[in-house]
Every structure is written in structure tokens, then in C-alpha cells.
Specification:
By secondary structure, the protein is an alpha/beta fold. It is built from 8 helices and 5 strands, in the order αβαββαβαβαααα.
């Protein structure tokens, strides 16, 4: 009979304290300051998929709400063709490269309206402003923000993050296990963390220690996403 296990893992909702910093300390500190004090008034983050852009936007939104201020997300425009701009709050715009014509127009107007509302702007995209396929006036406005390129984690930082996350689950993983996972698992951090979760769950269910042999066995059974077993 398969053992049922309680899900008592720590919360993995994005917040500043569980952001894997790597080489992005200045970006983290700036976004944290924006979420707490509304300054700097406009920040743009860019980088490759998995570099942490959405994590920081989500963390900033949570921190802003915790401080008693409202947050709006640029997902839909209002009947007036604008994005909501909370008074003394925050507007988050993720994946700016995907804004349609209406969204681009709303973002341009948000720059004009935000100072009077004392609303900070936090945006993220997959390219520097000059390379975004957006209206020229929108790209120019984004280029006037405080801009950070988020650097992806190297293997050393990933290994440290995985080891610390495993410890938060009560797991002391062998260095060889983490090395194997980095060599054979998917490269993005969320998938690597999911693999640790799966290893934890199955080790409990099978009453086995979370060892490298068990990890290899799980990979062969395709119970968590890896590129090669």
C-alpha cells in the first residue's frame, strides 16, 4: 500500500526573501525599495526566461499590499483605454514585449498620469528597451526608467539555492545528488525546485532516504521533468 503523506512544504510563493539573488543584488534592493517607498518611480527589468523578472514583480506587489497600498496589473485596459493607477500605489507590467496596440497606448498614458497619482511603475520584458518591438514613444519612455538586466544564476548559485531549499524541507542532500540534477535536469530554477519537491514526496512515500540512487530511479520513471536520465 502506498503511504499517504502530508504536504507540509514551506510556502514557495514569490517574495523577496526567497529570491535567488546571484549577481542581481542591486536590482533586488531597488525593487524592494520601490515597493516600500514608491521610489524610484519607474523601474524596468529585462532578461531571459527564468532570470527572476516575474518573481520580483510578484514579490513587489505582495510587499506593496503588505504596506497598505494598492497594486494594479496591466492585464486589461479600462473602458477609458487606460490601465488602473492606484493612488500612491504600484502598477506592474510584466512581459511588456507582448503588449498589443491598446496596451501600448495605455502604458504611454500611464507614464503621463503616474506622477499626479504618485503611482510607481515596475515593468519587465525580454529585451533592453531599444530592442523591444513597441511604439517608438513607448520604447523611449521605458528607456528613461531605471533599468536592470537580470543575470541568470550560474551553476554554483543554483547549487547553493537547491541545497538551501532542500534544508528548508528538512533534507540534507549529498553534493553529488545536486550535481547530477544540474547536469541532467532542466536548467531553469523552478523546474529544479520542483524536482526537489518530487524527490521529497517520493522518498517519504517509499520510506527511502532522498539519495542519488533514488533520484536516478525517479528520473528513469519520468516522475519529474528531466532532459535526460
Amino acid at each position: 500500500m502506498r503511504q499517504l503523506t502530508l504536504d507540509i512544504r514551506p510556502e514557495r510563493a514569490p517574495h523577496f526573501d526567497n529570491f535567488a539573488v546571484g549577481e542581481n543584488r542591486e536590482a533586488l534592493d531597488t525593487v524592494r525599495m520601490l515597493s516600500r517607498f514608491g521610489q524610484p518611480a519607474a523601474v524596468y527589468l529585462w532578461g531571459e526566461t527564468g532570470s527572476g523578472k516575474t518573481h520580483l514583480l510578484t514579490a513587489a506587489a505582495a510587499e506593496t499590499r503588505a504596506g497598505g497600498h494598492q497594486v494594479a496589473e496591466a492585464k486589461t485596459v479600462t473602458d477609458d483605454g487606460d490601465f488602473d493607477l492606484p493612488e500612491n500605489g504600484l502598477l506592474c507590467v510584466d512581459d511588456v514585449q507582448n503588449l498589443d496596440a491598446a496596451g501600448q497606448a495605455a502604458l504611454f498614458r500611464a507614464y503621463i498620469r503616474a506622477p499626479a497619482k504618485r503611482c510607481a511603475l515596475l515593468m519587465a520584458g525580454d529585451a533592453p528597451p531599444s530592442a523591444l518591438r513597441l511604439r517608438e514613444d513607448v520604447r523611449t519612455r521605458i528607456g528613461q526608467c531605471l533599468i536592470f538586466e537580470l543575470q541568470p544564476l550560474d551553476d554554483g548559485h543554483k547549487a547553493e539555492t537547491l541545497a538551501l531549499y532542500a534544508l528548508s524541507l528538512g533534507l540534507m542532500l549529498e553534493p553529488e545528488l545536486i550535481t547530477w540534477l544540474l547536469e541532467h535536469g532542466r536548467r531553469d530554477l523552478p523546474s529544479l525546485l520542483d524536482a526537489i519537491d518530487t524527490l521529497d514526496t517520493i522518498s517519504l512515500a517509499r520510506r527511502r532516504s532522498p539519495s542519488l540512487p533514488l533520484l536516478r530511479e525517479i528520473a528513469q520513471e519520468s516522475l519529474f521533468p528531466t532532459e535526460t536520465a
